[in-house]
Design a protein that fits this description.
By secondary structure, this protein is mainly β. Helices cover 6% and strands 40% of the residues. It folds into two domains: 162 residues, no CATH class; 72 residues, no CATH class. The chain contains two helices and 17 strands. The strands form two sheets. Strands 7, 9, 10, 11, 12, 13, 14, 15, 16 and 17 form a ten-stranded mixed sheet that branches. A seven-stranded mixed sheet has the order 6-5-4-3-2-1-8.
């Protein structure tokens, strides 16, 4: 067991109390295994990084699967990247999450135990990287001095690896509004950088393309609102299709 190792239990959100903000994300550990989830969805699905397994797993929790899928848990499984040796100043990336400032959600009022990461300037986005590395905290912090990245969390695990959460601003981010097209039994949801007056942004869309072997799990979090089925779609709006479970209400 590595000396000075500790359990990881890191809850964070983009924004600040009383302002537009993301949902709360959590990364935690059990022994040298690490888990990542978004807000309340930890009771449904999570990303698992098992220290002894050559794969990353994104799937349902055992409790949810036992009740709803006859125990079938895996949604995605892909080969994890190799953790570079100490001194190479490299890491294996686990999660790459993007939080565009113009699509953040309303103030949740839930502040206890949350580490706040300031939102990026309007028109840009915060990028969060979650990595597994063998570099020390000091080595990582020194490497970030000149590139604008910030170490938000660092936990040394019992097996000698460290799990770190890193933030940076994506100055080249380009906003793209999205319409999730509805159907007879659920409404359209629009995710727009500029909402109509009074819109409450009660719906969350977290897009995650299937990763390739060696890649990180990617997430893009957008907040939006229900719109009528006859909503006039602007020519520059991206259209997606999905079922009732494609978005999650922040009020659920």
């Amino acid at each position: 067991m590595a000396s000075n190792s500790r359990l990881l239990n890191f809850r964070f959100a983009i924004g600040l109390p009383g302002t537009r903000q993301s949902s709360v994300w959590q990364a935690w550990s059990h022994n040298s295994d690490v888990y990542v989830t978004q807000d309340k969805m930890g009771k449904v699905h999570k990303l698992s990084v098992h220290a002894s397994a050559p794969y990353y797993f994104y799937g349902l929790t055992s409790e949810f699967a036992a009740e709803h899928t006859d125990g079938q848990r895996d949604l995605l499984k892909w080969r994890r990247g190799t953790v570079p040796a100490a001194g190479e100043k490299l890491a294996a990336r686990v999660v790459w999450a993007v939080f565009p400032t113009d699509y953040l959600g309303p103030d949740s009022g839930r502040y206890h135990g949350v580490h706040w990461i300031p939102a990026a300037p309007k028109g840009t986005a915060v990028q969060i990287d979650m990595i597994v590395t063998r570099e020390s905290r000091a080595a990582i912090e020194v490497s970030f001095v000149s590139n604008g990245r910030r170490l938000e969390e660092y936990a040394l695990l019992p097996n000698g690896d460290a799990f770190a959460v890193v933030s940076s601003v994506m100055p080249d981010w380009e906003n793209e509004d999205v319409l999730l097209r509805g159907g007879p039994d659920f409404a359209n949801v629009a995710f727009r950088a500029a909402d109509e007056k009074g819109a409450d942004r009660s719906e969350i869309l977290c897009m995650s393309p299937p990763p390739k072997d060696g890649d990180a799990m990617q997430f893009l979090e957008l907040w939006g609102n229900h719109v009528p089925l006859d909503f006039p779609v602007p020519p520059n709006m991206k259209i997606l299709t999905g079922g009732p479970g494609a978005v999650r209400s922040s009020k659920s």
